[in-house]
Write a structure and sequence with these properties.
This protein is an alpha/beta fold. It contains 22 helices and 26 strands. Among the domains are: about 30 residues, no CATH class; about 200 residues, Rossmann fold; about 110 residues, Immunoglobulin-like. The N terminus is likely disordered. The structure holds beta-D-glucopyranose. Beta-D-glucopyranose binds next to loops.
Length: about 750
Amino acid sequence: MFGLTACLIAFGGCDTPQKAIQAVQNAPKMLSEKEQKIEALLSKMTLDEKCGQLNFVVGPILTGPTLQNPPTSADLEGQIRAGQITGIFNTNGAKNIRHLQEVAVKSSRLGIPLLIGADIIHGYKTITPIPLGESASWDLAAIEKSAAVAAAECAATGINLTFAPMVDISRDARWGRVAEGAGEDPYLGSLIAAARVRGFQGKNLAAANTIATCIKHFAAYGAPEAGREYNTVDMSERRLRETYLPPYRAAVEAGAATFMSSFNELDGTPATANEFLLDKILRKEWGFKGLVMSDWASIEEMIGHGSVANRNEAGAAALKAGVDMDMMSYIYLKELPKMVAAGQIDLKFVDQAVRRTLALKYDLGLFTNPYQYGDEATEASVILSKENRATALDIAKKSIVLLQNPNNVLPLKKDTKTIGLIGALGEDKVEHNGTWSFFGEAKDVVSVAEGIREKVGKSTKILTSRGADLYNMDKSGFAEAVKVAEQSDVVVMAVGEAAVMSGEAASRSDIRLPAAQEDLIRAVMAVGKPVVVLTFHGRPLELSFLENQPASVLACWSLGTETGHAIADVVFGDYNPSGHLPMSFPRKVGQVPIYYSYKNTGRFYKGNYSEAPSERVYQSKYRDVKNTPLFPFGYGLSYTTFTYSDVKLDQSEMTNNQSITASITLTNTGKMDGEEVVQMYLKDDVGSVTRPVRELKGFQKVMLKAGESREITFKITASDLAFYRKDMSWGSEAGQFKVFIGGNSETMNHKKQ
Ligand code: BGC
């Protein structure tokens, strides 16, 4: 029995409170200081100036389709003076931004300061790991700190708004933008979304070292058909609400200042004019009060989608649905004034959007001090400071995931006589900053080679060979690489994707190591020396060719500025790897979308693949590959080993307002101190609608000394069991649940209730 009943809370059901509410509503409203400021400004604005406040334009770094006539800085200044732009994005430099703010404040009619936006996705100059990499740390405090460093650095240059965090759940490694998110799971994704919002915005948005966030891309942008960028998204409302929406909501609850609508359509309506998403869910259900902006030209692109016929219709649809600000369509600036004048759209929609824009500027403290962001002295002292680099190193180490270490080749000894460093990413500095790092500079990156050289003793010889390129099948470098391997005691291979192979507009239909790198690894392994493979990538790769091979493998993502130091700390055992995958690594690309919280079918294949494929008929499976991923969600090894005791429950039944405590004893059974990510999954055996085979509902990152044991407990309450029931109400149902606690999503360590 699990006697849970529907948990309905009724508001405003009796007369008296309703009357009281009405009385308050009818009383003359006392405007707050902020509202007074906004209303005073609004009353002075012409219609053109209002529409100008809704027009957000790019600076020198273009991050969308190339413009026919990119604005020159003289154009931009002219537009600022004329009150035609609310802000500029993807520009930088304290001196430059100070100048732009001065133009706005001193030379535009109303002196309204500018928003200065930028895609600060994983650092400004001190580049931290790509968000998917950071998510592998499962360390919320470290993720928050990393975002705070990014905020402080870019605020010092004058940027006051970042287009981050991207909180799109994705289960499709073909999609290049998985690099920017937190992976496949809504629970982990929600906690990370909130941590990033806290990190960027801090406790006070008006402080000089915090910036506004923009939660993107609303919504479900991470589920494009076939993993192809910008493609159509279509899914049930249940899946949308259960899997894709939770991180956006967590960001609202964490106080995110702004949202960005996504490029994709959902259920036949582009997200940029989707009233169901923008109005019903975001504003009415979640109570979001902040500003919503479009994505790059996504208002105009609705013409391409075929949901509107022209720019006027596009502008009206977006504004009415709740998109307050137009990024790069120039529709609000150019078409809205004519449409309002012609009575085609009510001025109230424009006013509402302007109010939200001015409110954001007020909250950022721009009306009090328009120059507080961007200060040359702070810029010089904060950017790439020792402390910031230390934060980047800390999260970089924590992001690395040990995938296999079959012969315990890792950690390497610092006095190894000769180390061969092979691969295109060994001495490289350009690729390690990864996607979305245009302000980061290659010269600031510590390469893998530099990191290793700093770490080893003077007597260690390091031989290097590029071996193969990231882009072509040229194998002429193999012979030299093989020679290096022959002369070495151990080989470290640094291979992977180029930075541009993930991120926006970087979907891949083949997610193996690009070009000749697999063959290079095979050729080097054939030499027979101990091999460590460092894979750098923006997405889960298909690494099946390494299964059952003697090579040790570390998944390293793009680690940023401190790449070489982080790698050296992990490879030589000064840091025991603690990362766990935030996204499943498929065996073959044909398995994607692949994720741990799948549903059983009526014919789910439960065999062990020992039968011939022809005997496994009429089962939900492939003929040529197992159903399981190569490395599951939550997976990650350590240089030590951990054992889990059986799961214990303090009671086996509970009702709606009770809880159950589940516990295990975790023991570090190896010889090194180390950290484990202890994960708790729940399975609802039977529901009014089918339920996933398990769902993550809790985790703790635990440090244990060699030989140490500790009891780890998780409290399970009714809200952990809740889901969208048959009638789409949110709540739990009576029934039997299983609790699994282990080190990855395939753990079978469970106890039946
Ligand atoms: C991307 C956004 C980004 C914007 C501005 C768009 O193409 O989808 O994520 O914030 O450009 O650079």
